[in-house]
Design brief:
There is one protein chain. With 328 residues, the chain is α/β, with parallel strands linked by helices. It has helices at 12-28, 36-46, 59-73, 83-86, 110-113, 116-121, 136-140, 162-182, 186-191, 197-203, 206-209, 225-235, 255-263, 290-300, 319-325; strands spanning 52-56, 78-80, 99-103, 125-130, 143-146, 218-220, 239-243, 249-254, 278-279, 283-284, 304-309, 312-318. The protein has two domains: 16-184, Glucose-6-phosphate isomerase like protein, domain 1 (Rossmann fold); 206-325, CBS-domain (Roll), CATH 3.10.580.10. The chain is 42% helix and 16% strand. It has a five-stranded parallel beta sheet with strand order 2-1-3-4-5. Strands 6-7-8-9 form a four-stranded mixed beta sheet. Helix 1 packs across helix 8, helix 2 (36-46) crosses helix 8 and helix 3 runs parallel beside helix 8 (162-182). The relative contact order is 0.10.
Length: 328
């Protein structure tokens, strides 16, 4: 618990709104710094054959981590290096093909300034974000991006608030400008987000989640309805494929078909499955995106699909497979 007592009747909502007003005002003035230096920074990063190495100390370091992550997820290869650790060996991560994006609100961070002679000696391009182009970092930068704001939201003017927000926004501006310039697509985004819902929808294919081999429920065209029911029960997918031989598809029989058959009063032992199956069945290719297969299920109001190549049975896809894969 804090040792500082609260002021009686303090208005938290008003204090919060004041922070928003101050930070919004600061961001509104940031667009004056989207200038020729910003264009140079984008062009330099776009032409980089290596990576963007982001550095920052303290709060700028935390913001730098997020900027590096945004770059990496939007098509600009990047990572964060802590400048203090860089002075003790981690600078070896940086190559001459890379670009360093160094962040310091004051532009006077000793931990970063100590690295600059080495970066210059290796002829590594240096982009600096500071609030002062005449700072030590501003003067030695190959490209300087100004992030000056009129006021911190902190009433003491000490805790980085508006300035860190402005830095984050400038990083977003760089990343998004580069994303648009490259024509970065949803599919490109998914490649760096395979664990997310969007990544699964854009990358996962039917062949990745379908049932194959002994998991496929199927019976021959000579099987009885009783045989088909046993296969449906064994494989627990609510359907069975009917095949002319082991792989050539004749049709499909589902638990929905079963309900219709029972309404007719048919004896399961007395009728062949070929006489009551649904011929052909709804089929998809194994290379189809799983999300597209799901849309077919929704449109046709069915729970399973046959996966085939022409008439050859390759697998079966059930809506529960979509659930397990996180598509639904």
């Amino acid at each position: 618990m804090s040792s500082f007592p609260l002021q009686p009747g303090f208005d938290f909502q008003q204090a919060g709104k004041e922070v928003l007003q101050i930070e919004c005002k600061g961001l509104a003035q940031l667009d004056r710094y989207i200038d020729s230096e910003f264009t140079r920074a984008c062009e330099t990063i776009a032409s980089c054959s290596g990576k963007v190495v982001v550095m920052g100390i303290g709060k700028s370091g935390h913001i730098g981590c997020k900027i590096a992550a945004t770059f990496a997820s939007t098509g600009t290869s990047a990572f964060f290096v802590h400048p203090a650790e860089a002075s003790h060996g981690d600078l070896g991560m940086v190559t001459r093909q890379d670009i360093v994006l160094a962040i310091s609100n004051s532009g006077e961070s000793n931990e970063i300034l100590a690295l600059i002679p080495v970066l210059k000696r290796q002829k590594i391009s240096l982009i600096c974000m500071t609030n002062n182009p005449d700072s030590k970092m501003g003067k030695v930068a190959d490209i300087h991006l100004c992030i000056k704001v009129p006021q911190e939201a902190c009433p003491l003017g000490l805790s980085p608030t508006t300035s860190t927000t402005a830095t984050l926004v400038m990083g977003d501006a760089l990343a998004v400008a580069l994303l648009k310039a490259r024509g970065f697509t949803l599919q490109d985004y998914a490649l760096s987000h395979p664990g997310g819902a969007l990544g699964r929808q854009l990358l996962l294919r039917v062949q990745d989640i379908m049932h194959i081999g002994d998991e496929i429920p199927y019976v021959s065209t000579s099987a009885s309805l009783s045989d088909a029911l046993l296969e449906i029960t064994r494989k627990n997918l609510g359907m069975t494929v009917i095949c002319k031989d082991k792989i050539n598809i004749a049709g499909i029989f589902t638990d929905g078909d079963l309900r219709r058959v029972f309404n007719l009063g048919i004896n399961p032992q007395d009728i062949k499955i070929i006489n009551i199956m649904t011929p052909i069945g709804v089929r998809v290719q194994k290379t189809m995106l799983a999300i597209d297969a799901l849309n077919i299920m929704k449109k046709r109001k069915i729970t399973s699909l046959i996966v085939s190549e022409k008439d050859q049975l390759l697998g079966v896809l059930h809506i529960h497979d979509m659930l397990r894969a996180g598509i639904l």
